[in-house]
UniProtKB/TrEMBL annotation:
Keywords: Signal. This is DUF1194 domain-containing protein. The keyword Signal applies. It comes from the Bacteria. Gene3D superfamilies: von Willebrand factor, type A domain (3.40.50.410). It holds the Pfam family DUF1194.
Length: 258
């Protein structure tokens, strides 16, 4: 946020009013979408369709128009053990139905593929970098992470999450629980304890593939509107997480030690 503000400010240290208004949005939102090989091509395709459908839905458009400025800035990328090269869809302002359809069409045109491993920490770090580099000033800065397993690659997830939250960003989660995961107490619990953070942060579980599109739409509307989810799984402030946030790394290591 500070980097983007420094770029936007003039030599006098004061941001021109017209430029400030042109770059101000209600939310800067990064969609970070898991495409690891624990999901098959059918599931990846349904996931993609869910995002495309949600972005074109009237509820999403109405939520955007209902904000203070009536516009948001949105970007997208896919990740697994790393950020997928070429998957990044750069920042675009959405203020109208046509804007939303144009962004959804860009997403729909992307090839579908899967990659190895799961690095939620890398996804969060990429989201942070994109928000810092964004030319837009969001009243809220949100990283939206969807995934179907715990972190098992790259840096541990909680320190990266904590740095993002300390900078004022919010991380929400969509826990894809279509089949048993490596999180013993449930992936939604893992996301609640180890991944999400910031004011009003929430995790939505998806247990049936046919529920995916509705869950994505609900999540986007809540993020844009700044609503809090009365979640059944919420971390306790100030408490140590009951979940082992290194469970994915340990399971991956154990698999190779056998």
């Amino acid at each position: 946020m500070l980097t983007s503000l420094a770029v936007l400010m003039g030599l006098s240290g004061v941001m021109p009013t017209a430029q400030a208004a042109a770059n101000e949005v209600d939310v800067t939102l990064v969609l970070a979408v898991d495409t690891s090989r624990s999901m098959d091509f059918e599931e990846i395709g349904i996931q993609r369709d869910g995002y495309v459908e949600a972005l074109k839905h009237k509820e999403f458009i109405d939520a955007v128009k209902g904000g203070l400025t009536g516009r948001i800035a949105i970007s997208y990328f896919e990740w697994a053990g790393y950020v997928v090269q070429g998957s990044v869809i750069d920042w675009q302002v959405i203020a109208t139905e046509q804007d939303a359809i144009a962004f959804a069409d860009k997403l729909d045109a992307r090839p579908i593929g899967t990659q190895r491993r799961t690095s939620i920490s890398t996804a969060i770090a990429q989201g942070v970098s994109m928000i810092i580099a964004s030319p837009f000033r969001g009243r809220r800065e949100v990283i939206d992470v969807s995934g179907d397993g715990p972190n098992n690659s790259g840096n541990p997830v909680t320190p990266v999450r904590d740095k993002a939250v300390a900078s004022g960003m919010v991380i929400n989660g969509l826990a894809l629980m279509l089949r048993p995961s490596d999180a013993p107490d449930g992936l939604d619990k893992y996301y609640a304890d180890c991944v999400i953070g910031g004011p009003g942060a929430f995790v939505l579980p998806v247990r049936k593939i046919e529920d995916f599109a509705v869950a994505v739409r609900r999540k986007l509307v809540m993020e844009i509107s700044g609503l809090s989810l009365p979640a059944t799984v919420q971390p306790i402030a100030g408490a140590e997480p009951a979940t082992d946030c290194l469970i994915g790394e340990k399971q991956w290591r154990d698999m190779f030690d056998r």
